[in-house]
């Protein structure tokens, strides 16, 4: 009986020592989330805007699961939807929340209202939900110019509330602008802010400089092209490869521009420099291309939308910067995640999304080399195949590498096997590429093969030939839900395992003292 009591007491001591660190671990989680947020946001990224004028929008939980499946790491909301903020908790997804234009008056005229807004939508969720920024209004200076005097007071008031909550270094406050606030955008060296806005822009830029916040710009090469047909070539707007003779050249700097977006970004930098601000970075809060339009918008097509957004993603992830600032690559939020079918005409207004509201892709992005990021895959079922238009010699070289040094399983494309037919290099290369891609766990860069491969959600299996990716999925339960993909820090909270670096010296010493009587009496 004495031994039983002794054993029970020892168990209680051990349980206590192993579970005490849970509070410390929660603190460690908070610190790790903050560190991850600060480090990762220093790298250029592609995010998406989430509009909600959708007739059958996913529930908040399903939406977050869908974002995780798509490997989307940054989103921007046009409000501060609390259901979505709650669902984002303990994920790696970073979010910019917004103050709608119709709330500017209340927030800009009352510090108490601002403090209440920060408490309700920021303090209540951060850091479990990675809120990285607050967008105050949207294109206020051009869409509701009467509210312009309220803009900076609202921004300053919200910032003051963040300071009071000690969150001003983690969460930046700014406001998205329409491209039209900048005049004479090409050549970029001659660009300047509309002088009628100077009284607002000067103190706003000084605030952004002082607080380390970005200049948020909504930049649409689509509209530049539509308004300047015959002057701005379509290829320049779509990031298509250009011969030197087709590149746009700034006559003042002699810098060559291969795409319209870079020119628009540099125009913003020049405009800021004209107002003596040189340390504020440009964050592109909206950019995209519509996939459908009416008769007046013939260039709003799926092919053009696919080309623009695919090339945009590649351009950002290449980290090539702009001609004026090659050392700075602006992060971009694509407009937008879903088609907003409740939008008013024209037709294009409802057709900017990458996905329909039922989560099926509007078109397949061609983002070779970016892993599963935005692979338009609603079941996480992606394949790697050879791109169209690649010459046979180049494909053969890639095929030889995949089946040789790459150690892909190429047994099924041997004579007489199920995937030998059709007997051509493109078919065989696609099978080998997918074998390697699946073997590497669909890792970023595993579907590239020097630019001759692409990711697809269309199963390339045919007849009796079953591709490796299809085999892998068929052996699993197909489900969209992917909510188990939480951060490593959050996952560790589930297990209070002993780890010296997470248990204080005081706790260890206390546990030893409790055990000494039992050691000395044995």
UniProtKB/TrEMBL annotation:
Q: What topology in the membrane does the UniProt record assign?
A: Lipid-anchor; GPI-anchor
Please list the residue ranges annotated as the X8 domain.
382-467
What does the record list as GO biological process?
carbohydrate metabolic process; defense response
Give the SUPFAM superfamilies listed for this entry: (Trans)glycosidases (SSF51445)
What Enzyme Commission number(s) apply to this enzyme? 3.2.1.39
Gene Ontology CC terms: plasma membrane; side of membrane
Q: What catalytic activity is recorded? A: Hydrolysis of (1->3)-beta-D-glucosidic linkages in (1->3)-beta-D-glucans
Q: Where are the transmembrane segments?
A: 503-520
Name one molecular function that GO assigns to this entry: glucan endo-1,3-beta-D-glucosidase activity
Query: Pfam families in the record, alphabetically?
Result: Glyco_hydro_17, X8
| Span of the signal peptide | 1-24
Keyword annotations from UniProtKB, A to Z: Disulfide bond, Glycoprotein, Glycosidase, GPI-anchor, Hydrolase, Lipoprotein, Membrane, Plant defense, Signal, Transmembrane, Transmembrane helix
Its localization reads: Cell membrane
The top EC class is hydrolase
Give the similarity note. Answer: Belongs to the glycosyl hydrolase 17 family.
> What is the protein name given in its UniProt record?
glucan endo-1,3-beta-D-glucosidase
Provenance organism = Gossypium stocksii
Upper classification of the source organism reads: Eukaryota, Viridiplantae, Streptophyta, Embryophyta, Tracheophyta
């Amino acid at each position: 009986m004495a031994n039983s009591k002794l054993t029970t007491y020892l168990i209680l001591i051990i349980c206590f020592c192993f579970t005490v660190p849970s509070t410390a671990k929660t603190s460690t989680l908070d610190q790790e989330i903050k560190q991850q947020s600060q480090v990762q946001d220093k790298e250029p990224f592609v995010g998406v805007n989430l509009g909600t004028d959708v007739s059958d929008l996913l529930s908040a939980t399903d939406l977050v699961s869908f974002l995780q499946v798509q490997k989307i790491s940054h989103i921007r909301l046009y409000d501060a939807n609390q259901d979505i903020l709650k669902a984002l908790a303990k994920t790696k997804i970073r979010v910019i929340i917004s103050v709608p234009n119709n709330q500017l008056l209340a927030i800009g005229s009352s510090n108490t209202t601002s403090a209440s807004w920060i408490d309700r939508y920021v303090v209540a969720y951060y850091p479990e939900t990675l809120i990285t920024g607050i967008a105050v209004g949207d294109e206020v200076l051009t869409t509701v110019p009467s509210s312009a005097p309220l803009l900076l007071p609202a921004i300053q008031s919200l910032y003051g509330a963040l300071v009071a909550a000690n969150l001003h270094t983690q969460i930046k406050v700014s406001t998205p602008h329409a491209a039209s606030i900048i005049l004479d955008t090409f050549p970029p060296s001659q660009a300047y802010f509309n002088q009628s806005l100077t009284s607002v822009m000067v103190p706003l830029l000084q605030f952004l400089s002082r607080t380390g916040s970005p200049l948020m710009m909504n930049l649409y090469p689509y509209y530049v092209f539509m308004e300047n047909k015959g002057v701005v070539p379509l290829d320049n707007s779509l990031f298509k490869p250009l011969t030197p003779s087709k590149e746009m050249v700034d006559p003042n700097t002699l810098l060559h521009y291969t795409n319209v977006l870079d020119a628009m970004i540099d125009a913003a930098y020049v405009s800021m420099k004209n107002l003596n601000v040189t340390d504020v970075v440009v964050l592109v809060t909206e950019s995209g291309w519509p996939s459908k339009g009416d008769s007046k918008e013939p260039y709003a097509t799926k092919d053009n939308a696919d080309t623009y957004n695919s090339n945009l993603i590649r351009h950002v992830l290449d980290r090539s910067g702009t001609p004026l600032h090659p050392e700075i690559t602006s992060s971009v939020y694509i407009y937008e995640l879903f088609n907003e079918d409740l939008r008013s005409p024209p037709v294009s207004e409802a057709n900017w999304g990458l996905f329909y509201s039922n989560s099926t892709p509007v078109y397949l992005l061609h983002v070779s080399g970016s892993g599963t990021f935005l692979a338009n895959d609603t079941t996480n079922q992606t394949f790697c195949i050879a791109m169209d238009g690649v010459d046979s010699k180049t494909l053969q070289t890639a095929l030889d590498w995949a089946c040789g040094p790459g150690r892909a399983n190429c047994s099924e494309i041997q004579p007489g096997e199920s995937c030998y037919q059709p007997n051509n290099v493109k078919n065989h290369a696609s099978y080998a590429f997918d074998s390697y891609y699946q073997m590497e766990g669909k890792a970023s860069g595993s579907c590239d093969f020097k630019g001759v491969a692409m990711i697809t959600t269309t199963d390339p299996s045919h007849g009796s030939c079953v591709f490796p990716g299809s085999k892998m999925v068929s052996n699993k339960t197909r489900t969209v839900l992917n909510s188990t993909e939480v951060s490593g820090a959050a996952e560790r909270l589930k297990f209070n395992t002993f780890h010296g670096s997470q248990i204080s010296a005081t706790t260890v010493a206390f546990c030893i003292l409790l055990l000494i009587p039992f050691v000395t009496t044995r």
